[in-house]
């Protein structure tokens, strides 16, 4: 792990969040996009058709000032269970657009997203001057909408996310509260 990666590493009670690299792109990671639930709710899932495409996706987001793409690793076992990505991050306007995937289905519904979002949003507020986290969620993904609501996200139209799909609900978390 290089020194820049260490700066962006976050520790929570159960997880280590560290910047993803091509080394993290494995068959297991690729398999997450074949899960029916993932395909249904993750817009880019259908684009992840092979290891090379997925490696390219990760590579294109490495070392960019407007992207932080963390892998979520179980602290005790170092097993990669998911990712959280902020793209774009706009420090001048004070917002970041978030996407999260808990790829390992055995970790879904266990508070992983909440723990990870709290830690990363705090990091972004303190280090990148972020005041709002914005996400798009499929209207039928009721579990996610409920979980985001518990974290303080509210339904809100915004110009910071492409919301041409009527099935996508835009939610915003204010970090000023």
UniProtKB/TrEMBL annotation:
SUPFAM superfamilies assigned: Acyl-CoA N-acyltransferases (Nat) (SSF55729)
InterPro entries named among the record's database cross-references: Acyl_CoA_acyltransferase (IPR016181), GNAT_dom (IPR000182)
Gene3D superfamilies: 3.40.630.30
Keywords: Transferase
Example GO molecular function: acyltransferase activity, transferring groups other than amino-acyl groups
Superkingdom per UniProt: Bacteria
Domain named N-acetyltransferase: residues: 15-176
Name of the featured protein: Acetyltransferase (GNAT) domain protein
Organism encoding this protein: Leptospira interrogans str. UI 12621
Upper lineage: Bacteria, Pseudomonadati, Spirochaetota, Spirochaetia, Leptospirales
């Amino acid at each position: 792990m290089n020194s820049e990666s260490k700066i962006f590493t976050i520790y929570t009670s159960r997880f280590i969040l560290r910047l993803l690299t091509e080394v993290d792109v494995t068959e297991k990671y690729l398999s997450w996009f074949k899960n029916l639930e993932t395909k249904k709710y993750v817009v880019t899932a259908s684009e992840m058709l092979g290891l090379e495409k997925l490696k390219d996706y990760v590579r294109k987001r490495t070392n960019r000032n407007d992207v932080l793409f963390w892998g979520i690793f179980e602290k005790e076992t170092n097993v990669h269970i998911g990712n959280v990505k902020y793209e774009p991050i706009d420090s001048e306007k004070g917002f970041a657009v978030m996407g999260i995937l808990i790829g390992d289905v055995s970790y879904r519904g266990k508070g992983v997203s909440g723990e990870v979002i709290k830690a990363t949003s705090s990091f972004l507020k303190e280090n990148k001057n972020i005041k709002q986290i914005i996400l798009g969620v499929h209207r039928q993904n009721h579990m996610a909408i409920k979980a985001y609501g518990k974290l303080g996200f509210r339904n809100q139209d915004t110009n910071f996310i492409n919301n041409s799909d009527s099935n996508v609900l835009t939610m915003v978390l204010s970090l000023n509260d």
